[in-house]
Amino acid sequence: MSALAQTFRRFFGEERDALVLGLLRIAISALLFFNGLRLVIEFYRSGFFADYFYLPMLPEAWLPSRSGYELLLGLQALAALCALLGFWPREGLLGASCLGLYFLGCDRLQYHNNRYALLLLGFLLAFTPCDRALLLVRGRSHTLPREQRLAPTFARRLFQIQVSLVYLGSTLGKLFDADWRGGQVLFMRYAEAPANCAAHGFPLPAWLIAILTAPWFASLAAKAAISSELFIALGIWLPKTRRLALWLGVLFHISIEITSKVELFSWLMVASYLAFVVPEVRERRFQFAPGNRRAELLARLVALCDWCARFERSPLSPTEQGSAAFYVTNRAGQRASGALGLAQLAEAIPLFFPLWLPLALYAKLSAKPRTPCASCA
Amino acid sequence: MPRSLLNLSPRLRPVFFCAYLLVQLGLLLRAQRTPDLVFGFQMFNASSHLKISLFRKVRQRGRVRVVPVRDGAWQTKDRSGVRHTFRWQDRVRDVNLNTLDQFVHAAYGLDAQLFRLPFALRYFMRHLPGDEETEALIAEVDTRTNGRETGHVRLQADRP
Q1: DSSP class of residue B72?
Q2: Is residue A376 part of a domain?
Q3: Which residues 250-269 on chain A approach chain B with CB closer than 8 angstroms?
Q4: What is the pLDDT of residues A175-184, one digit of tens each?
């Protein structure tokens, strides 16, 4: 068999642990549910979309009646809820996302990139084995044993490609636009920021206004935004740069969430990063000194927040106990404690991931330089 | 082991994979040629603004006049003398298009809003029961592209 055929077979036949896909399903279906809920609220508050100016992308004959639309809205919310709880989860994801795409087709004015991206990612996730873990309706036995979680995950690759396409579409549009590249678009947005902040009761200090309204700052920010998006789009594919790209992405979306109204976009993109997590579980080790209050507290925190099941937790045996309260061993087998150990924890725990780079840098800078021992010379 | 119809057979997987990618790439490329960049993932693509001012072309005593529409509303009498009030905002809910006589941010760029506005005008003209006077609706649009270039566009929708 040729190498190409082998690669082909490996790509489409790849079987990996599906536990993290279960977590991804919960995140995406929750977002789909909120998206559906927004449509339901809009329907009851503002009325049927076709009673006002609307712009269909589909033929008029395909559009639903008022009662039909109401029914479909209910079905979409129900399907998303089923996916969330783990009752026919993949079918639920498929149903909710297809109905959402149909609604977008009914009215172009409803189109927003974040909604479209959510629906596409929900659609793709339905083709992954995301129904083998975290099935909340099954109570305590919500996750299948490891051997039953192994399943073909080729659709996870499509999901990853789709995430990249979202960033690539966005960044290439900006890159080819001279106004964007030069900072003029951001300059206009920043120029409005002081008045917007003051209107919301947060007047900005004069020095910050001076920076925000400076053309050089907008130009710099534009270049930083374009290169960040490009780095995220491509960097997530390379094992060496993936962690940094994801970290940059998390910070990028936190800053967008704070400064702009983007509906569920930031949440969606951060959740989609779970697709880039190595599927295999318990490949890292967290050991803590029993009896040490701080170490036990940290162990409890790890147990609570280790949603991707990265760590095998165990108390240190009396013979292993040294000066450190805890040790973290990463996938490469590097054992660390202190700030570096915390950095290794943060890199694998979603909630603490934004702290990874600061902790890693702090650990690197505060590490004592290894000077050769004079007596050993 | 959970069974699902969505478990694609090994033969179907490459077909699904390629079909999905082709459709996505096709939509991404097509989006570059659509005025509102729909399916193109182009977030925050512009900081442009537009100001829409509405006018009505009316025929009164045999003469055609263009009268401004104040706050998006006007009143007319039908043939039986019953007075009707028409409001632009009652029919057009989109924030970019229903704010009149003041500059607003043009979401997805000026081209997107200038593409949608003629449809909105035509839609409104189709929903004027009892207005015997209005022959056409005119939108005078002032534009500012990314805070620099200014422009003016005139759009008109006649009574169908």
Answers
A1: G
A2: no
A3: 260, 262, 265
A4: 999 999 999 9
